[in-house]
Specification:
The chain is mainly alpha-helical. Among the domains are: 1-111; 590-664. It is 74% helix and 0% strand. It is built from 31 helices and no strands. The protein starts with 8 loop residues before the first helix and ends in an 8-residue tail after the last helix.
């Protein structure tokens, strides 16, 4: 498999093709990693550190093989191969030393010897370098800064650096032995909770998504969305929203979502009349929603479940309504634009028929049904992922076997021994492709979690989390809204250099204590708010990665497209606020409370979209738009009277807009 699959079409021409021996080695290691994960998930669970150390070692070997030291556009050369050989050896040592000496390390109980410290230093440097290649330079810089902060202090390796620290950030400082041992041999460092989740739940579900992708599930979801919405006004854009919601259940990346669904939806949106920047922005906003869509939520559901000690299935349940709210908002934006520009749907003969789509791909729903059913039985998510993968493979094999042995002969394709051998070879190749793709797709998220473990370890060692919480409380003056705005800005800044998963982990460690202990936000709500805000770097300028991917496909200016995506994705900002001030939709309440809060939230989001666009049933003047803005504030205020008043104002404004559209409609011609 050529590594150009990891890059955009524009970059693919500039990539240097790797030697065949390297490609085969990548395949061998990737397939071995996937088989190891399947074995641990479904056959024989391993000990915590055994699982994580072997996983990280294989992931880093893949990272160094896939991403050359000087970049994918330059050949390695003798120097590159020498450096890569050193780092490959470091990857083997990182996992191998811990797995082979785990009992002795535990028996030393913190009194580590010099070999432990040397290996710990090698492991830390190797992890940071693998992250630089697989995730990006920003992640490595933040990891290095975290280690430097641990050294900064009168008793640390860098006492002079501590003198430059503001008073609230000062600490005693730590030696290299203490820091290296804590990060490599402790339970809060590299092998801490983030990597633990990546090495178990996340990998197995990434592998599940890879098999769905290889077997054609992505095209099935897209065709199903087109069949459902294609004839409506702005049909392709609505299909983009629905397809991204569907792909969100199998994709772990907003950018991958844009590239997958956008290749089909963006050209059709442009053809229908959407401006290129609008088409790219719609796809970016919808694809970002895939990261908050259960059951996977871009791997976030597993992390939230572990951090809050909440069953995974509960995280999925409570995330359904907020995800529906988000996609409903994007869907309404799309509909309003279609109405404003007088668009129509696509002709029936250009759209797939739902009956044909379901006939060709209904079997893709079976693995998802098995997944939901097993989760409802409270089975371990790791075991659920294993059975989901097995079901996907079994269903694909069975469906093709039925066609090959019973349908193909009736179409003039006889079953011969040569054909059977050819089909078996093709099936094994497809199996290898799924195993390899799953491992490749997991490299970036696993490396991000490993470096996030370094950051989390430093935060725990130095007490930075409590200090950051104190700073946040001081700057906000105890005002919860100002505190949330600070979290939003911090997530945007972190998102410029970190992937979403890492940004969430770092933020929740830093601001989580303040949100729950100082501002009284329920633990689960605080995690969801931080997780939602961590998505905004996908659509918020100046670093809007999903927006830039949409612009590349749409042929529009990146920054203009990013602003459109930012506008369409406003639910990322409003829905978390609603969770904070109306926590009943998350932590539970009476049925009446949940129905009321859900209803006013949907009305508020719809009215907000209309006010922002200045159009709903017809053009909206500035007075109702201002009234709606004020009413939204009332809806978010934690008072039943204010909520009722705000909801009433929005309903009146929307009703008035509908009545105005009726008055503008041409009167029917009188009969002669």
């Amino acid at each position: 498999m050529n590594e150009s699959r990891q890059s955009s079409p524009a970059q693919a021409k500039r990539l240097v093709v790797q030697p065949r021996a390297v490609l085969w080695t990548i395949t061998f290691v990737a397939v071995g990693l996937s088989l190891f994960q399947l074995y641990a998930a479904g056959l024989q669970p391993l000990g915590l550190f055994y699982q994580r150390s072997i996983h990280l070692s294989l992931i880093m070997i893949l990272a160094f093989l896939i991403y050359p030291v000087f970049g994918a556009t330059r050949t390695r050369g003798p120097l590159g191969w020498a450096l890569d050989a050193l780092f490959l050896a470091g990857a083997v040592v990182t996992g191998g030393y811990l797995a082979l000496n785990l009992d002795e390390i535990f028996n030393r109980a913190g009194f580590w010897n010099q070999t432990d410290i040397v290996v710990a230093c090698i492991a830390t440097v190797t992890v940071l370098e693998a992250s630089r290649r697989a995730v990006g330079f920003g992640m490595t810089v933040i990891g290095v800064l975290a280690v430097a902060y641990a050294f900064a202090g009168p008793r640390g390796e860098l006492p002079w650096l501590g003198e430059w620290m503001p008073g609230i950030l000062e600490h005693r400082g730590y030696t290299i032995d203490r820091v290296a041992g804590h990060l490599y041999l402790g339970q809060e460092g590299i092998f801490g909770l983030p990597l633990g989740v990546a090495a178990t739940y996340i990998f197995i579900f990434v592998l599940f998504g890879a098999f769905l992708e290889c077997t054609g599930a992505g095209k099935f979801f897209i065709d199903m969305a087109y069949a459902a919405t294609g004839r409506q006004r702005g049909g392709p854009a609505k299909a983009a929203v629905l397809a991204s919601a569907g792909m969100g259940s199998i994709s772990g990346s907003a950018i991958a979502n844009v590239v997958t669904t956008g290749a089909f939806t963006i050209p059709l949106m442009k053809r229908l009349g959407y401006k290129p920047k609008q088409a790219g922005g719609v796809e970016a906003a919808a694809s970002t929603g895939g990261q908050i869509m259960p059951p996977l939520m871009g791997a976030g559901a597993f992390l939230i479940a572990e951090y809050t000690n909440t069953p995974y299935v509960e995280i999925v349940k409570i995330s359904i309504l907020p995800a529906i709210m988000y996609f409903a908002t994007v869907y309404l934006f799309v509909h309003i634009i279609a109405l404003k520009q007088g668009m129509q749907g696509l002709p029936k003969d250009e759209l797939p028929q739902m009956r044909q789509v379901m006939s060709a791909g209904w079997h893709f729903l079976l693995p998802l049904a098995v997944l939901v059913w097993l989760l409802a039985l409270s089975m371990s998510p790791m075991r659920v992922g294993f059975y989901a993968v097995v079901t996907t493979v079994a269903v694909a094999v069975l469906r093709y076997a039925l066609w090959f042995f019973f349908v193909a002969p009736q179409q003039g394709q006889p079953v011969t021994s040569a054909e059977v051998k050819r089909v078996m070879r093709a099936g094994l190749a497809k199996l290898r492709e799924g195993l390899e793709l799953g491992a490749r797709n997991a490299v970036a998220v696993s490396m991000a979690c490993a470096v996030a473990g370094i950051i989390v370890g430093v935060v725990g060692l130095t007490g930075l989390g409590l200090k950051f919480s104190a700073m946040m409380l001081a700057f906000s003056g105890g005002n919860i809204l100002l505190a949330l705005i600070m979290v939003l800005l911090a997530s945007l800044i972190l998102g410029m250099g970190l992937p979403v998963t890492a940004s969430y982990i770092v933020l929740i460690v830093l601001v989580g204590p303040a949100l729950t202990q100082e501002f009284g936000i329920p633990l689960l709500v605080a995690h969801l708010v931080v997780f939602w805000y961590s998505q905004d770097s996908n659509v918020t300028p100046p670093i809007a990665l999903a927006g830039f991917a949409g612009a590349a496909i749409a042929g529009s200016k990146p920054m203009e497209t990013a602003f459109q995506a930012w506008k369409f994705a406003k639910g990322l900002y409003l829905i978390p606020l609603f969770m904070v001030f109306n926590p009943e939709i998350i932590v539970g309440g009476t049925p009446a409370e949940i129905i009321w809060n859900g209803a006013i939230a949907l009305v508020a989001l719809g009215a907000f979209a209309a006010a922002l666009e200045g159009y709903l049933f017809t053009r909206m003047s500035w007075l109702p738009r201002l009234a709606i803005t004020a009413a939204i504030v009332g809806v978010f205020y934690p008072s039943l009277l204010a909520e009722m008043a705000g909801a009433a104002v929005m309903v009146i404004a929307i009703g008035g807009n509908w009545w105005a559209s009726r008055r503008e409609a041409p009167a029917p011609l009188a009969k002669a």
